[in-house]
Structures are given as C-alpha cells and as structure tokens.
Amino acid sequence: MSGREKTPQAKAARNHLVAACAVLAAVAMVGAAYAAVPLYFMFCRATGFAGTTQVATAAPALKGQRVLTVRLDANVAPGLPWSFEAETASVQLRTGATATVYFKVRNRVSRETAATAVYNVSPGVAGAYFDKISCFCFSEQHLGPDETAELPVVFFLDPRLEQDETLNGVQEITLSYTLFAALDSNRPVAAAPGIQNGESQR
User: Fold this and answer.
1) Of residues 107 and 2, which shows the higher confidence score?
2) Does some domain include residue 108?
3) Is 176 part of any domain?
4) Do 19 and 87 have their domain in common?
5) First to last CA, the chain
6) Which domain does 10 fall in, by range?
C-alpha cells in the first residue's frame, strides 16, 4: 500500500471532520444573521439610514429658523381589513417645534384584529433629524369588531437639519406608514392610545 493511500478509518475520520466544520460554519452564519438584525436597526436609528426616524423624550429648548412641509402618507398592506388615513394631508412645521398629528383607523370586519406599523421618512437623509416623541408604531394596535380609533404621532424636526447641506433645497418631508396584519390577533382588545386637543405648534 502506498504511503499516500488512506485507510477506510482515516477517510471516515476526515469525512466526519469536514461534516463537523460544515455544521459549525452553518451555525456561525445563522448566528451572524440574527446578530446582524439588531445591529442593522441600531445603525439605522443612529444615522437615519433608509429614512429611519429617531426617538426623543422632548423637543429641544431652542427652535430653528426653517419651516418645512411634512406630508403624511397612510397605507394598508394586503391581508389587513382596516381603513387607514391621515386626518390632515400635511403640516407646516418650524424646526425644533412640536407637532401632533392624527391617523384614523377602522376595523372593517366583525371580529377583533390587530396590526403593526412599518414607517419611514423621505428623503431618507431627513430620517436622522425626524424625532418622534410618541407614536402608535411603537406598539401593536388592536381594534374590536367595526371599531374606529384615532392614533396620534408627536414629533419634531431637529434644528440640526439646518446645518446639513444635503437638505438645503428640501422643502417637503414625507412621513409614511404602512399597517400590516399582526401575527397574533387573538389577544384581548387594547385601547388605542390618544392625545386630546393635540395641535401643531410653531
């Protein structure tokens, strides 16, 4: 037998080693994929990438100088039997000032259903300066049979927007929502959040 020839036992051991390496590589790839998701969202939150908005607890103390139009867009994905619309098409907002806008939803079927919202801002670069203080997109929304609700969004435009040269020629920003059917619609109905007498401030 040549020195280069391998015994059946050696071949089997080598095959087991290759299989083990393949399994470990697959596990590592899956783990990396799961880790990439929260890292991706953290990156989007930090940079406003892909129109991802920011989260804030309060508006800045000082207002800016620019006044922009914020347009409101509402969409419903296939499979969700809701109607969904903004109560106003747009608002004029000075940077640093807080605005409260409402979206009206209605469950059009005779059973409880639930939805979650996906959102973005365009142009995408504006997401880094679009700060939400309160939003229905932060939690799952439940509506009973034929129930309607007003869902508020409280937000402001960071005055630092004025220092970004890529936004110098931008006069309009669009805040867009799409509602999707939630995976679990069998939990008890939760009251939709509401803010009374919310008005845009300049």
Assistant:
1) 107
2) yes
3) yes
4) no
5) 90
6) 1-47
pLDDT digits (tens, 9 = 90+) for 130-149: 999 999 998 999 999 999 99
**For 164-195, b where at least 16 C-beta lie within 10 A, e where not — what string?**
eeebeebeebbbebbbbbbeeeeeeeeebeee
Contacts of residue 57, defined as CB under 8 A and 6 or more positions apart, other chains included, come to: 133
From CA 38, how far away is CA 74, in angstroms rounded? 26
Specify the amino acid at residue 129. Answer: Y
* Contact (CB, 8 A) for 74 and 120: no
Distances (CA, A) of 35 to 30, 43, 139, 141, 169: 9, 12, 22, 27, 38
21 and 98 share one domain: no
Rounded CA Rg of the chain = 25
Q: What is the pLDDT of residues 69-85, one digit of tens each?
A: 999 999 999 999 999 99
197: amino acid identity, one letter: N
Same domain, 165 and 93: yes
Closest of 155, 146, 143, 145 to residue 195, by C-alpha: 155
Cα(80)–Cα(138) distance, rounded to whole angstroms?
18
Q: Are residues 68 and 40 in the same domain?
A: no
Cα 82 versus chain centre, distance: 19
